[in-house]
Design a protein that fits this description.
Number of helices of chain B: 12
Order of helices and strands of chain A: HHHHHHHHHHHHHH
Number of strands of chain B: 2
Helix content of chain B: 55-70%
Distance between the termini of chain B: 48 Å
Number of strands of chain A: 0
Largest sheet of chain A: none
Oligomer: heterodimer
Shape of chain A: globular
Structural class of chain A: mainly alpha
Number of helices of chain A: 14
Strand content of chain A: under 5%
Structural class of chain B: mainly alpha
Strand content of chain B: under 5%
Largest sheet of chain B: 2 strands, antiparallel
Shape of chain B: globular
Radius of gyration of chain A: 24 Å
Largest interface: A-B, 115 and 113 residues
């Protein structure tokens, strides 16, 4: 398989044999099916009764039990409360990240100041420090501040991040013209005013991408919320989902999947609507290297 | 920007020459970047040093701290469970990462080929797994990896024995590596694809004129020019696989509280349970420090291996 695809690559459509062409598309389609099938399967299990998961041969048709299954989710957890909690935390973090990262990225792109490059490399280097190294003391700080089991513990440490600064700097460096800033200065505009009324309108697309990416990351975050949140009223959606996965009365997969599907759907819609931006943002990390 | 326009500070109150345009813009820049450094100092830098400090103390996070020297490190390294978590992490890291990178490279080359239509749609489809939360991925795959689940049915159809994916030593590792692979293969393929697209087409043109066959083009053009991307992707995957936590924690934790069962315990799971289950913050800190050192060592091995790749790129390593 390997040598075959290597050899057909970068050939013009005309000179590839029909057999290799079929094989080529077959592999790509298999890849796409493997990527998409779990989403479909999630929906199949969510809409069938609880025995459907272990049906032999596997059941692949969509059923009608979705609302029954989802009913049982609501009996066990405050699902919508958890969704709202996640929405709140993700929105607060995202607004803050977009604001502070844009500000810092703009400064790194458009200002001259001592140690600029060293500071920027420092920002990049922090990306490679594993977060587990700081989990324990951060937890202790949160305990000292009495922030355990509050959203502040989730929001405050995440308010600005290195990736966002890197991403905004790359974009601002080319999108914002220095002459515009200078003429703004000569007209007597303050630096923040120039940032707000000249730079921000030009770099909005990059801010939007950063916002979507960040929202998805915070929405999907598991480790830190697991450590910090104690009371089930405060659980984010990921913790609530994990709590449903319980043996108590036999695993009720119809119920679990109806919740998982409902929790995944909003992100899936956001992704499909903005897929170009999301992909551009998520792969930009590689471009710098 | 840096031109010090002499004495036009229109908004400044006292127009002393001290408050020049240059100084003002420097101060602004430092103010703009300061939130990151303040936050990192509190929740990044200080915790790192405190973790190292903590690893020499015995502490339950409540009572007084007691200095114990290297005892925490002795305790951790003589705990068989730590070594189980270490080998588990490595095995699942290798099983999840190596096939993933090879398939990703393969997919990227196919997507990049002139023959492929619907490139954009394929890109979106391959990317979809990556936006799903790890918890959701784990829950979905746990339905497939059940004892009477779909995967075992498939194995039986192909004439193979069923596997105990939720309790066997290898079964659990295969299940978890599959989840990791599913979530990341498409992502890495897209990164490789953006790398492939950055290679100028006339290089291939020139090579073809010089009589280079496809294999030689691959060995002398594609792989060397793709190298930075390969280095990046392997590095990120290695660091990520050393930090594996959510998949095993959720997958094996069918009691609703998460689990540290031996088949799937990883180093981060070990750290988590030392600190937040057992209340041994000292040994947990020692584990964190060791995890960090292991991360650095593996990153360096990684760079070294991928750095050598150029030499034997024509060989089997694709």
């Amino acid at each position: 398989m390997s040598s075959n695809t290597w050899t057909t690559s970068s050939k013009a459509p005309g000179d590839a044999g029909i057999v290799s062409k079929v094989l080529f598309y077959l592999l790509l389609i298999i890849g796409a099916l493997v990527s998409v099938f779990p989403f479909y399967w999630m929906f199949v299990v969510a809409t069938n009764d609880r025995g459907a998961v272990f049906h032999i041969p596997p059941m692949l048709t969509i059923g009608t039990e979705f609302f029954h299954n989802f009913q049982r989710v609501l009996e066990r957890t405050d699902f919508f409360q958890a969704l709202l909690n996640s929405l709140f935390v993700s929105s607060m973090v995202t607004i803050s990240v977009v604001f502070f990262c844009t500000l810092a990225g703009y400064a790194f792109a458009k200002f001259e100041f001592p140690f600029k490059n060293a500071l920027f490399y420092f920002v990049i280097a922090t990306l490679f420090v594993p977060s587990q190294l700081s989990v324990l003391p951060t937890y202790i700080i949160m305990a000292k501040l009495h922030w355990i089991d509050t959203y502040r513990a989730l929001i405050v440490p995440a308010m600005v991040n290195a990736f966002g600064i890197f991403w905004m700097r790359q974009y601002a460096a080319t999108a914002v013209h220095s002459e515009l800033i200078e003429s703004g200065r000569i007209d007597g505009g303050g630096h923040f005013r120039i940032f707000w009324s000249i730079a921000v309108p030009v770099i909005t697309p990059a801010m939007a991408t950063l916002g979507i990416l960040n929202f998805m990351n915070v929405w999907n975050d598991f480790f830190w919320p697991l450590v910090v949140l104690k009371n089930s009223e405060h659980f984010t959606i990921q913790i609530a989902l994990q709590q449903l996965f319980s043996n108590r009365d036999g695993l009720d997969y119809g119920m679990i999947m109806s919740a998982t599907f409902t929790a995944t759907l909003p992100l899936l819609i956001v992704f499909l609507l903005f897929s170009r931006w999301v992909i551009a943002g998520l792969t930009s990390g590689a471009v710098k290297s | 920007m840096a031109e010090p326009v002499t004495a036009v500070p229109p908004v400044s109150a006292g127009k002393r020459p001290f408050w020049t345009e240059q100084k003002r813009s420097r101060l602004t820049a430092y103010t703009f970047i300061s939130p990151f450094f303040i936050l990192f100092a509190i929740f990044g830098l200080y915790p790192i040093f405190f973790t190292i400090y903590l690893s020499f103390f015995k502490w339950d996070a409540l009572g007084p701290m007691k200095y114990v020297g290297f005892k925490n490190y002795d305790l951790v390294t003589s705990d068989p469970l730590f070594w189980t978590s270490f080998t588990n992490t490595l095995i699942m890291g290798l099983m999840g990462t190596i096939p993933q990178l090879i398939i990703a490279l393969q997919l990227a080359v196919m997507l990049n080929s002139a023959m492929t239509r619907f490139k954009k749609s394929f890109r979106v489809l391959f990317f979809m797994p990556n936006i799903t939360s790890i918890v959701a991925v784990t829950l979905v795959f746990s339905t497939m990896f059940g004892n009477n689940g779909m995967i075992n049915w498939l194995l039986n159809q192909m004439g193979m024995e069923s596997m105990a994916f939720n309790s066997g030593w290898w079964g659990v590792k295969i299940a978890i590596s599959t989840m990791v692979m599913w979530r990341w293969t498409g992502y890495n393929a897209i990164i490789f694809l953006s790398g492939l697209q950055s290679i100028p087409l006339d290089l291939y043109e020139a090579a073809r004129i010089d009589g280079a066959n496809r294999r030689q083009q691959l060995a002398y053009i594609t792989l060397p020019l793709l190298k930075p991307f390969i280095v990046f992707v392997t590095l990120i995957s290695t660091i990520g696989s050393l930090q594996l936590f959510t998949e095993p924690y959720v997958y094996l934790g069918q009691s609703g509280t998460g689990s540290t069962r031996q088949e799937g315990i990883t180093m981060v799971t070990y750290l988590y349970s030392e600190a937040f289950r057992n209340g041994f913050f000292g040994t947990a800190a020692a584990t964190a420090v060791m995890l960090f050192i292991i991360t650095i060592v593996f990153s360096m091995i990684n760079m070294w291996v991928t750095g050598r790749m150029e030499g034997d790129a024509g060989g089997g390593k694709a």
